[in-house]
Structures are given as C-alpha cells and as structure tokens.
Amino acid sequence: MLQVGLTHFLTVSAILFSLGVYGVVTRKNAVMVLMGIELILNSANINFIAFSRFGNFGYSGQIIALFVIILASAEAAIALAIVLNIYKTFANVNVDEIDHLKD
C-alpha cells in the first residue's frame, strides 16, 4: 500500500512552483502572468499544509495557508481590475508592449 509522505507533497509543490515561475517569466499576457503567480501561491500553500501535518505544528500551517488564500483572492481581484483598465486604455494586455504608463 502506498503511503503519501512529505516528499510527495514537496515534489508536487516544487513542480507547481516551477510551472508558476515559468509562466511568470515567459508569458507576455498579463492574465497568464497572474495565473503563474497563483500557481506560486498554491505551491506555498501545499508546503504550509504539508509541514503543518508532518511537522506536528498544530493548525498554524493551515491558518497561514488560509491567510495566503485570502491574500491571493484580493490580489486576483485588484490585478484583474488593473488589467481590465489597461485593456480599456490601450486595447492590449501584453506586458512588454505597455510602456506608456511611464509618462
């Protein structure tokens, strides 16, 4: 019978983190960059929950993960509002092409 241990959680978290960093670094679309940031935050949540479960820290990891979820939802709402405003102004959401905000 397969026992799911800490290394399994850390492996999944590392894969999610790597995919998130890849999405942030390589994508030009602002929505895809936001999705990469969400993957990074979700990998941090998996780490918090795994260390809380296997490290005998009680509920502290789960409480921190709850705060990260709240932070991620606020970040998504504000970032999507900014992206919609940028699209309304420039008719484009590519991060590389929006350089008129400096003026």
Order of helices and strands: HHH
CATH topology: Helix Hairpins
**Helical region count?**
3
Mean of residue pLDDT? Answer: 88
Low-confidence stretches: none
Class inferred from helices and paired strands: mainly alpha
- Name the helicity range: over 70%
Main beta sheet strand tally, sense and closure: none
Structural domain tally = 1
Which percent range describes the beta-strand content?
under 5%
Overall strand count: 0
Our Rg estimate from Cα atoms comes to 17 Å
What is the global morphology?
elongated
Task: Please tell me the CATH architecture by its name.
Answer: Orthogonal Bundle
Briefly characterize the structure.
The chain is mostly helical and 103 residues long. The chain is 75% helix and 0% strand.
Would you write up a description of this structure?
It is a single chain. The protein is mostly helical and 103 residues long. The protein has a single domain, classed as Orthogonal Bundle (Helix Hairpins). The protein has helices at 6-26, 30-54, 60-90. α1 runs antiparallel to α2 (30-54). The chain is elongated and about 55 Å long. The termini are far apart.
